[in-house]
Specification:
Elements lengths: L1 E4 L3 H13 L4 E4 L2 H8 L6 E5 L7 H10 L8 E6 L3 H10 L3 E5 L3 H15 L6 E4 L2 E4 L4 E4 L2 E3 L3 H12 L5 E2 H9 L8 H14 L6 E4 L3 E4 L5
Parallel strand pairs: 1-2, 1-3, 3-4, 4-5
Antiparallel strand pairs: 6-7, 7-8, 8-9, 10-12, 11-12
């Protein structure tokens, strides 16, 4: 869940629409009071927080979040006015994970949200094994039935995502978003081509990458 704290209703709705269209759950708040009230019931994955807000401003909200042990590790991206260097420095010093300079594009916002979420993610295992396929994230190697498999960077990232979530169905749109960091524009052949090539390179193990008709792809096999 991504939260957007922005007093401009038009900007807030565009942010929420963009996030939701790319697979994120998102909720918006017009001020800090509404956001802190919601925090009593739920904790988001990340907050996009405007600096210029009515009542408590964004810097004050950030400081309060970081002083509370329950929310100190919560990732926050600050949205600052163009040229407001002091606000950016203050926000970063207080623990903000990144900042956006207004006016900013929605693609930039998405890129920064994804980057911060990746950095904030808990440590992933160095090695993944599913059935007869083993993927080593540190050595950046893949073996299938004990044989080395040479993959391109995107093929490797695609396989890693599927192996990390065995049995989970990923839509083509979600794979485009997570692996290629692209918005869905109606063109999903990129995913299909990479899946086809990946299966071929995995040989007999390629059957572990399953097509879920009408939905997308998933990987099966006993986790080790």
């Amino acid at each position: 869940m991504i939260w957007c704290v922005e007093d401009d209703a038009g900007v807030r709705e565009i942010e929420l629409y963009t996030l939701r269209q790319t697979g994120f759950a998102a909720e918006g708040f017009q001020d800090g009071a509404a956001m802190f009230d919601a925090l009593k019931r739920q904790t988001p994955q990340l907050i996009v927080l405007d600096v210029m807000l009515p009542g408590m401003d964004g810097v004050q909200i950030l400081k309060r979040l970081k002083e509370n042990p329950k929310t100190a590790a919560l990732p926050v991206i600050m949205a600052t006015a163009k040229g407001a260097e002091y606000d950016k420095i203050m926000a970063l010093d207080l623990g903000a994970d990144d900042y956006l300079v207004k006016p900013f594009g929605m693609l930039e916002m998405l890129a920064r949200v994804r980057a911060v979420l990746r950095r904030a993610a808990p440590g992933r295992p160095a090695q993944l094994t599913l059935g007869a396929i083993t993927l080593d994230t540190r050595a950046h190697t893949v073996t299938a039935n004990g044989a080395r498999v040479e993959l391109t960077l995107k093929e490797f990232e695609l396989l890693q995502l599927l192996m990390a979530h065995p049995g989970t169905v990923f839509t083509r749109e979600r794979l485009l978003s997570d692996v290629w960091e692209m918005d869905y524009d109606g063109e999903t052949r990129t995913v299909d081509v990479h899946i086809r090539t990946l299966r071929t390179k995995l040989g007999a193990c390629g059957a572990q990458v399953e097509t879920v008709r009408g939905l997308g792809y998933k990987m099966e096999g006993e986790s080790v």
